[in-house]
Specification:
Region (Disordered): 106-139
Protein name: RNA-directed DNA polymerase, eukaryota, Reverse transcriptase zinc-binding domain protein
Strand order of the largest sheet: 1-2
Number of helices: 5
Number of strands: 2
Radius of gyration: 37 Å
Strand content: 5-15%
Keywords: Nucleotidyltransferase, RNA-directed DNA polymerase, Transferase
GO molecular function, one term: RNA-directed DNA polymerase activity
Helix content: 25-40%
Length: 149
């Protein structure tokens, strides 16, 4: 039971009265459907689309479209026409979030390469070939720093 203003404001509202049990009151479930107004979702540009081989072709096709009107209207119309092809291109890329999670997991489970030791004397420079080969070069003095080959 409601007045006309209530029934006009909440179209489809109804009450379900449950049977009473312990008390002499019966519970009522009031359902008020909410009206859903369609709001377009904002366009988000993902940088991964630029790496796709079809990206430049799609942008060129959309930008070469002939639109009559003021310059700003032309730009907006061309950008609006580009939204659907770019969304389709992103959809064809697959679930990017799942790919990132998978690749991060692969990086975490992959054995890490050991870093070379650091500090004084940890790594030795490669000696010149004349010292390694034992040739007699008068300009090279053998101080015994390098092991004999």
């Amino acid at each position: 039971m409601a007045n006309l203003a209530c029934t006009d404001g909440f179209v489809g509202a109804h009450a379900i009265f449950q049977p009473y049990r312990i008390s002499d009151h019966s519970p009522a479930i009031l359902t008020i459907p909410t009206s859903y107004k369609f709001t377009p979702r904002p366009f988000k540009f993902y940088n991964i689309l630029v790496q796709n081989s079809q990206f430049k072709r799609m942008v060129k096709e959309s930008w070469d479209m002939d639109v009559s009107g003021f310059h700003m209207y032309k730009v907006v119309s061309k950008l609006k026409a580009l939204k659907k092809p770019l969304r389709k291109l992103l959809y064809n890329e697959g679930n990017i979030h799942d790919k990132v999670v998978k690749l991060r997991h692969e990086l975490d489970t992959k054995p890490k390469a050991r870093a070379p030791p650091q500090g004084l004397g940890a790594t030795r420079p490669t000696p010149p070939p004349s010292v390694m080969s034992g040739t007699s070069n008068t300009n090279v003095v053998d101080l015994g720093l390098y092991p004999d080959s």
